[in-house]
TrEMBL record:
Keyword Protein biosynthesis on entry: no
SUPFAM superfamilies in alphabetical order: Periplasmic binding protein-like II
InterPro entries: ABC-Tungstate_binding, PBP_domain
Protein name: Tungsten ABC transporter substrate-binding protein
Signal peptide: 1-19
Keyword Transmembrane helix: no
All copies of domain PBP, residue ranges: 26-241
Gene3D superfamilies: Periplasmic binding protein-like II
Length: 264
């Protein structure tokens, strides 16, 4: 009996020494789909003996999880919504992490006759005039917010039957667009991650309106006392530090760089 008690006590001591803490992070499906986090997060987890619990959703939902205190840190790409999140006191320590850009992709046959370097507003006008299928995420994500702002700039209110909102993440939307041979807006990183699995090609890029910055924000412990602010701060420091920024800059798919570090 004594032997069993001593063995149980020893096991409890060992487990407490090696028990992992956990950090909850909400982020965008585009960040997750790119594969970048699978490169960055294991190094952080090993260094701090932490398990990162990643919830990949649209930016709107990611920020909502932060507002509710359901996560400790958010990593998103919708500047206006991020600033509102911070101004309302839900987030602190907002830091620039990286950027890439959005691209318009579609079938190689290009039925709307879009030119690669024309203004994105003109490209969207041609899609509307031709009434060819366009797949929208329709999920309040950063990409969806950007897409809606681009339609507004083009002075177009997209509508059925050619405009389809599917309420899905970026990877799923690319697959749907590929099946339907339709147009869609995507961040370049996710497109490159899916490039060898689809027939769609980049048909428009380069407009300044397609710039896509990502920021990381700690959930404010003054709003939610239970959040792990100290651990969130360590992750922010890691991903915006020299090592994290190098990992971001070095990350490539098909020989192309997916993201460009911004912390410095």
């Amino acid at each position: 009996m004594l032997k069993n008690i001593l063995l149980l006590s020893f096991c409890l001591i060992i487990n407490s020494v090696y028990a992992q803490d956990s950090l909850r992070m909400s982020t965008t499906t585009s960040t997750e789909n790119s594969g970048l986090l699978k490169v960055i997060n294991p190094l952080f987890e090993k260094r701090y003996n932490v398990h990162l619990d990643i919830i990949a959703v649209g930016t709107g939902k990611a920020l909502h999880l932060g507002e509710n205190g359901d996560v400790d840190v958010v990593f998103v790409h919708a500047p206006a919504a991020e600033l509102k999140f911070v101004q309302e006191g839900y987030g602190i320590d907002r830091k620039a992490v990286m950027h890439n850009d959005f691209v318009l992709i579609g079938p190689g046959s290009n039925p709307a006759n879009i030119d690669i370097n024309q203004p994105i507003a003109n490209a969207l006008q041609q899609i509307s005039q031709a009434q060819v299928d366009f797949i929208s995420r329709g999920d309040d994500s950063g990409t969806h917010k950007k897409e809606l702002s681009l339609w507004q700039q083009a002075e177009i209110t997209p509508a059925k039957p050619w405009y389809l909102e599917v309420g899905q993440g970026m990877g799923a939307v690319i697959k749907i667009a590929d099946e339907k041979q339709a147009y869609t807006l995507t961040d370049r990183g996710t497109y490159l991650a899916f490039k060898d699995k689809i027939d769609l090609v980049i048909l428009n890029e380069g407009d300044k309106a397609l710039f896509n910055p990502y920021h990381i924000i700690a959930v404010n412990p003054a709003k939610h006392k239970h959040v792990k602010y100290d651990l969130a701060k360590k992750y922010i420091d890691f991903i915006t530090g020299t090592e994290g920024q190098k990992l971001i800059g070095d990350y490539k798919k098909h020989g192309e760089q997916l993201f460009y570090p911004d912390a410095n």
